[in-house]
Write a structure and sequence with these properties.
The complex is a heterodimer of chains A (297) and B (393).
Chain A: E1 11-14, H1 19-31, E2 35-39, E3 47-48, E4 52-55, H2 58-65, E5 69-72, H3 76-88, E6 93-96, H4 103-112, E7 119-121, E8 127-130, E9 141-144, E10 153-160, H5 164-175, E11 180-185, H6 196-205, E12 211-217, H7 222-233, E13 238-243, H8 267-276, E14 280-281, H9 288-296
Parallel strand pairs in A: 1-2, 1-5, 2-4, 5-6, 6-7, 10-11, 10-12, 12-13, 13-14
Antiparallel strand pairs in A: 3-4, 8-9, 8-11
Helix pairs in contact in A: 3-4, 5-9, 6-7, 7-8
Chain B: H1 5-15, E1 22-25, H2 28-38, E2 42-46, E3 57-58, E4 66-69, H3 72-82, E5 86-88, E6 97-98, E7 102-106, E8 112-121, E9 126-132, H4 139-145, E10 150-154, H5 163-173, H6 177-196, E11 199-209, E12 215-217, E13 221-224, H7 233-236, H8 246-253, E14 257-260, E15 265-269, H9 272-284, E16 291-294, H10 301-312, E17 319-326, H11 331-345, E18 351-357, H12 360-369, E19 375-377, H13 380-392
Helix pairs in contact in B: 2-3, 5-6, 10-11, 11-12
The chains are: A alpha/beta (297), B alpha+beta (393).
């Protein structure tokens, strides 16, 4: 098992005819992911890479292909609408890769999703990878923009707010011989669909996952909430890293949500909360893989 | 993005948030004309993006960035001492900020000061109104010492501000009769402004009542959602690049995410999380990062070259650490960018490069075969240690 998606999950890509979306759709196909449909309004009836049918609407794509997950590569002004279209079409999971969506749009999207069955991951995230069993983890489910080959199928659950820092962690794990069950990038925006805590609960319930690595950064109190829950409820060893200990207060560090404001959201407070919960905190970003080894005892 | 006080005032006027009469001036003559319109009881305020102006000192020795005067001639005199001068406050740092404009406004008599703000709250995923009976002071101190005097009201993102929510806050602040009505109108206008302009924060400190019964916003601080500026060209136009670090302004031209810091090891990284982590590991190894720099996921050779130029424009920089995890991005493209940049900028300080990921072998070969003197590193820790050692040597 894995969480959220596995090698049989059928996905569709909204914005498949854009250069960014198209490039990563192709990489997912190359990885062996069951990419069954694309959606671009006005381009219904065409095919992507001579094999994937394109539809005008998500509803049609879902009805025709049985896709249950949508990856969103739509530009920021239209991304909120695209997410809501996938929710309306009854997708189980929507993964929003788009960076730069206005916060007010996301606030409204989240409020409109209340009571719906769809889970949102992102926005401004690298996506999800459940590695496959083939060479360089081929045959897995790759949704988003992460490099597939750095992964290895295994028993470590990875959850992170960042992109390349997650690749760094995954690469350290793979080089230590520690494979991953699922890697989830929850994104760097202040309002997103799924939190560290949500993913931690899923990993805790997943029989395949035996240990968890959680990568956070300054801003908000997502990591503290996850730590407080883990202290009482998590049955599995956890390692963590928090980026941004040296970031100046009041400045946004690239990610819209990575800011220390009013003395809140500091790396020090997060690290203290994690340690208090018995979580092994990596001393530096080079130590993430080893921290997990220590956590596993 | 932040804006000046006079620009905030103009936005308030547009949305119907009552403020005292005032005008911006760029010369003593303009200040005199503006002051003549107001009459007497005039406040002259230096326009910079920093708090603590009243207690600040100009580098020419003139005390205070906020002055009360009675006549138009006095206003012109004060304006002459502020415009073109550098004001240092506890928020500007030692270098201070150049005052290009001043605001001349009606100095209203104050009966009582309050605090009112609306901010985008990430925990409740909704706008939250924050109000307090303690205004004109640092709200974080109020929160720490007398939290019972701060009131919060979350607003439903889809319903918007409800009349009962306004009444509830009004009652908590102790407004009655006509002042309750005025406060209600002011708050409704402020909420509309917050939503329609995609603010992430708007803060009025102080909100005041006057002896003649008016409720007015005396000061304003805005923060706008940068992601939403594309749909507000009129707000984007309020951006004042002279208020920012010139290196950051330059970096923005090339779509580089750069933030200047005080250390001497510059870093160039792809991805914001990894860029923060790289700063952290430099510090962990005993060094000090000179900057945050995220070149993004699909950096071009031109971007890498410009990133090098910006980094080297900082005289404090004594070494450079390049840390690239080429997930999808081809490491060889980055390597070629580094080689081209080094030739163009005539690099004369130690350069440590750590490449990992896609096509890394070709990238390392490109670097090794070039005549660029660089120190190559295998892991993040190795790179940071080598950069710190290069400076110590």
């Amino acid at each position: 098992m894995s969480i959220l998606v596995d090698e049989n999950t059928k996905i569709l890509v909204q914005g498949i005819t854009g250069s960014f979306g198209g490039r990563h759709a192709q990489l997912s196909l190359d990885y062996g992911t069951k990419l069954v449909a694309g959606v671009t309004p006005g381009k219904g009836g065409q095919k992507f890479a001579d094999q994937v049918p394109i539809f005008d609407t998500v509803a049609e794509a879902v009805a025709e292909t049985g896709a249950t997950v949508s990856a969103i590569f739509v530009p920021p002004p239209f991304a909120g609408d695209a997410i809501l279209e996938a929710v309306d079409a009854g997708c189980d999971l929507v993964v929003a890769i788009t960076e730069g969506i206005p916060v007010i749009d996301m606030m409204r999207v989240r409020a409109a999703m209340q009571g719906k069955k769809t889970r949102l991951i992102g926005p401004n995230c690298p996506g999800i990878v459940t590695p496959g069993l083939g060479k360089d983890s081929h045959g897995g489910c790759r949704i988003g923009i992460a490099p597939g080959y750095i992964h290895k199928r295994g028993k470590v659950g990875v959850v992170s707010r960042s992109g390349t820092l997650t690749y760094e962690a995954v690469w350290q794990l793979t080089n230590l011989g520690l494979g991953q069950s699922t890697c989830v990038g929850i994104g760097g925006d202040p309002i997103n669909g799924t939190t560290h805590l949500d993913v931690l609960k899923m990993f805790n319930d997943d029989p395949e996952t035996e240990a968890i690595i959680m990568i956070g950064e300054i801003g908000g109190s997502n990591e503290e909430a996850a730590a407080a829950w883990a202290k009482k409820n998590c049955k599995k060893p956890i390692a963590a890293f928090i980026a941004g200990a040296t970031a100046p207060p009041g400045r946004r560090m690239g990610h819209a949500g990575a800011i220390v404001s009013g003395g809140k959201g500091t790396a020090a407070a997060k690290i203290e909360a994690l340690r208090d919960a018995g979580i092994e905190v990596a001393k530096n970003p080079s130590d993430m893989g080893q921290a997990l080894v220590r956590a596993m005892g | 993005m932040n804006i000046h006080e006079y620009q905030a005032k103009e936005l308030f006027e547009k949305f119907g948030v009552p403020t005292p009469k005032g005008r911006v001036a760029g010369t003593p003559e303009e200040a005199k004309a503006a002051a003549a319109e107001i009459g007497s009881n005039i406040v002259v305020k230096a326009q910079v993006h920093a708090g603590g102006r009243g207690k600040g000192t100009f580098k020419n020795g003139f005390q205070g960035g906020v002055h009360l005067v009675q006549t138009a001639d006095e206003a012109a005199d004060i304006a002459g001492k502020m415009i073109g001068q550098v004001l240092v406050t506890h928020q500007t740092g030692e270098e201070g900020k150049l005052v290009n404009k001043i605001m001349v406004a009606d100095a209203v008599d104050i009966e009582k000061e309050y605090y009112l703000a609306i901010l985008m709250d990430r925990e409740s995923r909704s706008p939250v109104i924050v109000a307090s009976t303690e205004g004109g002071v640092n709200i974080e101190e109020v929160a720490a010492e007398t939290p019972e005097r701060i009131f919060h009201q979350a607003v439903h993102p889809l319903l918007g501000l409800q009349a009962y929510e306004v009444r509830k806050l009004s009652a908590k602040l102790g407004f009655g009769g006509d002042q309750a009505k005025q406060f209600g109108k002011l708050l409704s206008a402020l909420y509309r402004l917050f939503i329609e302009c995609d603010c992430s924060m708007v803060e009025i400190n102080p909100l005041v009542t006057t002896p003649d019964g008016r409720v007015l916003a005396l000061d304003a601080k805005f923060d706008f959602d940068d992601n939403a500026l594309y749909r507000h060209p009129e707000i984007a136009a309020l951006h004042d690049p002279t208020e920012e670090d010139p290196r950051e302004v330059e970096a923005a031209k090339y779509h580089l995410n750069y933030i200047g810091l005080d250390g001497n090891i510059a870093c160039l990284v792809n991805g914001a999380g990894l860029a923060m982590a790289t700063m952290d590991i430099i510090k962990h190894c005993g060094g000090e990062p000179a900057n945050f720099l995220d070149v993004g996921g699909g950096a071009t050779q031109e971007q890498v070259t410009n990133a090098f130029k910006i980094i080297l424009g900082d005289p404090k920089v004594k070494a450079i650490l390049v840390n690239i995890f080429g997930g999808i991005m081809d490491c060889d493209v980055i390597a070629k960018g580094i080689v081209a940049a080094c030739k163009e900028v005539d690099l004369n300080i130690p350069l440590v490069v750590r490449l990992e990921g896609n096509n890394v072998e070709a990238g390392k070969r490109t670097l090794a075969e070039s005549d660029v003197a660089l120190i190559s590193a295998d892991t993040l820790a190795d790179a940071a240690e080598k950069a710190v050692a290069a400076i110590a040597a």
